[in-house]
Each structure stands twice: as C-alpha cells, then as structure tokens.
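Input chain follows. Return structure tokens only.
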Amino acid sequence: MERAAPDHAELMDGVYRVQRHFYDATRKYYLLGRDRMIDGLDVPNRGTVLELGCGTGRNLVLAARRYPRAQFFGLDISSEMLATARTAIDRAGLAGRVALARADATRFEARDLFDTGRFDRVFISYALSMIPGWERTIALGIDALAPGGSLHIVDFGGQERLPTWFRAGLRTWLAKFHVSPRDELHAVLCGDCERTGANLSFEPLFRGYAVHAVVRARAIPAH
C-alpha cells in the first residue's frame, strides 16, 4: 500500500535515485550510533518491530539477524530506497520476516499497512532530521507502541561539545542533503512523554555529535 506526501516523496526519490546504490558504503562513516541502538532494542521473544524511515533496509537486516525470533516491519516515503531495501532483505533470506510499505512517516496507519497496529519496539535511525513535520512522526511512533513497548531514536545531535567551526561546517554540509539536526528533539520528546505517561532516556553521543533517545511506554495504557 502506498501512502506518501507527493512533494516530499518526489524529493526523496530524486535525492536517492543514484545515492541508494552507494548509500550504506558512505554513511557508515558518519551515521554514528546505529548499531548501538540496534543492540539496545532488547526485542522480546516473538516480538514485533517497526522502523520508520527504513531507507535501504540496512538496519532491518541487522536487527532481524540480531533478533531471529522477532517479526520486522519497515516503511519509507521513497520508492527508490524501498527498491534497495527489498533487494537487501531478499538477499539476506529475510523476506518471510520483514515486511515493507511505502508511506509517509508523518501520517501512516500501521494497521492498514501491515495488519497490525501495535509494536513492541519502534525505531527511527537518522530519519527525523530529514522529515518535515518530524514531531508528528514521534507522536505516531509512540502511539504505535504496545503496552510496555519502547521507541528508540538515534540521530544528529546539537554538537554542543564540538568546536564551533566543526558544528557550522557539518550543518552546512548536511543541508546539501536536505538534513537538519533537530535541536528541539529533547523538548518534543519530553512533551510526548508527559502526554502519554512514558519515560524518557536521552543520551548525547560522541560529544553531542549524535543523540540516542529511548521512550518507554507505560505497561498499562492510560485511560
């Protein structure tokens, strides 16, 4: 099923039509903290895991191998990236455990896409910094959690403990790829935790280059 904002979907397809072929080979040098996040998912036996903005499927393949008794789902707005993801998942022999859909992470209906509406784990890896209306993606990710589930996020941080010249140069370079670090991320997560009664862990990584956040939902939904 395809549900995506046409303008942003077209932009992302344009950005990744060529880049998708060498994306993983280059991004491993500066998308830091992804494997640490995957290791910390601690997916329960026969659990369900959703990635928002799954891109090339790199994280889904690693997570599915790390947690062989779980079921995985991924959505992305770019048909170009999903083509690469499907190839990667097929090559890894994981097609039976990983389902993909094209959708906008700011307005998706998980049950319509995957026939399930709640997940034990949801994760977002370096996607919020590319999503207009990213605050809505966080809210939907939290709302998609099963009781006691958790949302895991890794993305660019504020670079507050790095040299000013590095921070300015990094942000200028990222902007060329339509990437904007979300300096308000902590405040937005705090607001969503207050709204839902969830707990937040927020950790700067590599002197603030990146952040790793975990939102843990209540074991029993609030009424």
